[in-house]
Amino acid sequence: MVRAPRLSYEMMRLSHTGVFGDMKWIGEHYKPDLLLIPIGGHFVMSPEDAAVATRDLIKPKFAVPMHYGTFPPLKGTPQEYLQALGTTPTKVFPINPGDKLDF
């Protein structure tokens, strides 16, 4: 769960999608500060594709990986996402299923 009760910034949540070119336009136009990004693979982006979307297209200040580890086909991990992301100004909050994160 991600709670942001006093949200005074732009948030973008992606789910059940792959990388697509308009992510760059979304990043430039809406400039989301917080990105909730699927990383599990199979039905959603792999950690490597999610890293491309985060680092090269959307470029948020913060990212929370999601949609992973809840059942066997979603094999991607936050560690794989962080490794694929490399050096970036985006701060990543890798949480586990069931964890809470307050902004």
Return the structural class. Answer: alpha/beta
Q: What average pLDDT do the residues reach?
A: 88
Relative strand content: 15-25%
Number of helices: 3
Helix fraction, binned, reads 25-40%
**Side-by-side strand order of the widest sheet:** 2-3-4-5
Radius of gyration: 13 Å
Strand element count: 6
Low-confidence parts, pLDDT < 50 over ≥5 residues?
A: none
Give the CA-based shape.
globular
For the sheet with most strands, the description reads:
4 strands, parallel
Element-by-element helix/strand order: EEHEHEHEE
Give the end-to-end Cα distance, rounded to a whole number of Å.
11 Å
List keywords for this structure.
about 30% helix, alpha/beta, about 20% strand, about 100 residues, 3 helices
Question: How is this fold's topology laid out?
Answer:
Elements: E1 2-3, E2 11-13, H1 22-30, E3 34-38, H2 47-58, E4 62-66, H3 78-85, E5 91-92, E6 101-102
Parallel strand pairs: 1-6, 2-3, 3-4, 4-5
Helix pairs in contact: 1-2, 2-3
Short structural summary:
This protein is of the alpha/beta class and 103 residues long. Helix content is 28%, strand content 18%.
Polypeptide structure, described:
The protein has 103 residues and is an alpha/beta fold. The protein is built from three helices and six strands; from the N terminus they run E-E-H-E-H-E-H-E-E. The chain has helices spanning 22-30, 47-58, 78-85; strands spanning 2-3, 11-13, 34-38, 62-66, 91-92, 101-102. A four-stranded parallel sheet has the order 2-3-4-5, with helices on one face. Helix 2 (47-58) links the parallel strand 3 (34-38) and strand 4 (62-66). The mean pLDDT is 88.
